[in-house]
Amino acid sequence: MNDVKKSSGLPGTVAFRLGTLGSAVTDRFAARIESYDLKPKHAGVLTALSIGQAASQQELAALLGVAPSLVVALADHLERLGAIERVRDPADRRRQVLTLTDHGRELLRKCERAARDLDGELTAGLTAAERAAFQRALGVLAAEAGLPNGE
Q1: How large is the C-alpha radius of gyration of the chain?
Q2: What CATH number labels 22-125?
């Protein structure tokens, strides 16, 4: 009976649990990459550029689901860090194409290490089978939402 009571109401919903857990995990990830002068949204831009999903600031804004002005601010910061370069598209001079630099790829590797370390902490209480099932379920949810699913 206690199990039913614990899972009822808003706290028992997948949406609420993922939202609150996501917020807490984002804060912990942010703390781990802060020393690189990065925030999670910077890591998102670097990731999108690394997998070739977007090249222009407009495309990045659409992919990340944020305002173009935010992408401009994120790109400005990443450019100051030497993580990305902006190049005018020769076919459309109004379009800025963003590319990763070697330093940007190194920062992305550091972010990945920080995330994998955090993954280990977050899933420490799960068995290997539970971790694999959890990863599969997250992959399905990500794919259905149109997000990269880690494959």
Answers
A1: 18
A2: 1.10.10.10
